[in-house]
Amino acid sequence: MKHLKLKYALRDSELVHISQVESGGSHGCTCPACNKALVAKKGIKREHHFAHKAGDSCEHAVETALHYAAKEVLDRHRKICLPEAFITFNSNRGHLKISEEKTCSIESLKIEQGISGFVPDLIAKVRGRELLIEVFVTHKVDEQKQQKIIDSKLSALEIDLSKAPRNMPLEELEELIVNQCENKTWINNERVNEEYKKILSQTLERQIRTTHVHCCPVRSRKWQSQSNVNFMRECIYCPL
Ligand SMILES: [Zn+2]
């Protein structure tokens, strides 16, 4: 997707696809990233696309255009499929599922608006809560941004479009963004964090003072033919 041609431009704040304009002129179309005028290139040999005028360099055009395309698609459908969410334990207990994959209504949507010292690609409102949506094209969310997202105490979803085919038609992009979940991961999930805190406090309330717990009902590990677990390593992550 790195060399993807620019397929979208802005005109009077509306997103325009290359198929909607005549070849050769600017038609009032500007770059979503740098606001400079674009030219529609619709020749016979090369893939139809918008191009900056000679001499204008623009690094983020395709990435920003896809953020606008994602917003446009979500605005039109007003729903999004969200993936399952799990608590992952630092023990051999495996995962605890907190929520199933489900499609939720989007109440409102904003693009690239600053929040607590960082700029998420999209901010959606789902079930009265803000949900941050990151669209990964060439720039994955780095550790610094991830930490800011966690500190903001808002759930954040990443939609990975980095491996999507170059000539992906709009309908497939819509399908990936709205209805599918395979390319979506939670960067931060506040329900998972809240449930995890609950489990932790419930476990600590038991005031187990020994380092090992004998006859563990979970029986995650056996020692001397009894189920026996290490308190610090396993019990504090256990929901039972
Ligand atoms: Zn540009």
UniProtKB/TrEMBL annotation:
Return the Pfam families for the record: CoiA_N (PF25164)
Using the record's annotation, list all stretches that form the SWIM-type domain.
14-69
- Keywords, ordered alphabetically: Metal-binding, Zinc, Zinc-finger
Highest taxon, organism lineage: Bacteria
What this protein is called in its record is SWIM-type domain-containing protein
Q: What species does this protein belong to?
A: Agarivorans gilvus
